[in-house]
Amino acid sequence: MALNEVTISRAILAEQSRVLLDYMETDAAVVGGGPSGLTCAALLGERGIKCALIEKKLSVGGGMWGGGMMFPRIVVQEEARRLLDRFGITYREYGDGYYVARSVEAVAKIAAAACDAGVEFFNLTTVEDVMIRGDGKVSGLVINWTPVDMAGLHVDPLTIACRYTVDATGHDATVARMVERKSARLSVKGESFMWADRAESQILQHTREVYPGLVVAGMAANTVAGECRMGPIFGGMLLSGERAAELIAANIPR
Ligand code: 48H
Predict the structure, then answer these.
(1) What pLDDT sits at residue 122?
(2) Cα dihedral sign, 42-113-85-238
(3) What pLDDT, on a 0 to 100 scale, did the predictor assign at position 179?
(4) How far is the CA of 2 from the centre of ligand 1 (A)?
(5) Strand 158-167 vs strand 120-123: parallel, antiparallel, or unpaired?
């Protein structure tokens, strides 16, 4: 078979345009493809919930690729070991309920689980604003190509509608801060000092719907709550992603 370059280009454009048109309306939009966002998306997808994962960078994985100070290993505590097992991530027991996994394997396997569960990925796409209308609920996202943002080009965005948004944007809690800038009903307290035990033990209680239609997960949950950071232990990120998926699934029954 002689390969035709125009056919290859048409195939990419036709297929991604079809997907983009389909996902102009979705049940859930997870903003940020770090450990909490990937976990949340995978578990939403596994429940049959239509889910888009929007990631501004070229690759998903967020802060998990780099492990601790560029040593590509992550630590997960006993409470979250079952999620390593669930995603088929191998690990070694370090002792005393600490487990060490390869960061590359962890990212790859959770991302693969999300793909298998039918999640659609929109990478190189930046969320730059939210839609809030008369009902006071976050009902959609304003998106643009990341290179447009990086180049500072004046190009108007597009929008997608979603029943639930997950802010999984990490330390900056970017989506929650967008809401805070325009609504007095949400206050982002900002991240506090390093205190791993406290940060990890509180993250599930901070993983919640902080504004109608907006759930915060992962480090963004602690940032909104004024909670501590935890360093390169990732159990809380996985558990928080799972909790966010449970909260949304409870409101979008299948
Ligand atoms: C689209 C966006 C936008 C946007 C950002 O930082 P992450 O890995 O987030 P978490 O919360 O899943 O994991 C946090 C963890 O990696 C970490 O940093 C820890 C545990 N730190 C502890 C400590 O003490 O330092 O991923 C967030 C993702 C990134 O990939 C961003 O590119 C993406 O969100 N993102 N995507 N539109 N506006 N803003």
Answers:
(1) 98
(2) negative
(3) 98
(4) 43
(5) unpaired
Q: Candidates 169, 214, 233: which one to mutate for ligand 1, based on the most atoms within 8 Å of Cβ?
A: 169
Q: How many angstroms does the Cα of residue 201 sit away from the middle of ligand 1?
A: 19
Q: What is the CA radius of gyration of the chain?
A: 18
CB atoms within 10 A of CB 13: 10
Rounded CA-CA distance 63/107 in Å is: 10
| DSSP assignments along 73-125, one per residue | EEEEEGGGHHHHHHTT--EEEEETTEEEEEHHHHHHHHHHHHHHTTPEEEETE
Strands 73-77 and 91-95: unpaired
What are the domain boundaries of the chain?
A: 26-61+104-251
Assess whether pLDDT exceeds 90 at residue 253. Answer: no
State the chain's mean pLDDT as an integer.
Answer: 97
Please give the CATH superfamily to which domain 26-61+104-251 belongs: FAD/NAD(P)-binding domain (3.50.50.60)
Residues 6 or more apart in contact with residue 12 via CB below 8 angstroms = none
For every residue of 182-215, DSSP letters joined together read H-TT--------B-HHHHHHHHHHH-SEEETTEE
**pLDDT at residue 34 in the model:** 98
Q: Which two tokens stand for residue 172?
A: 């900056």
- Cα–Cα distance for residue pair 170/35, rounded to 1 Å: 9
The residues lining ligand 1, judged by C-beta closer than 6 Å to any ligand atom, are 31-37, 54-57, 62-64, 126-127, 168-171, 174, 194, 218-220, 229-231, 237
Element (H, E) at 132: strand 125-132
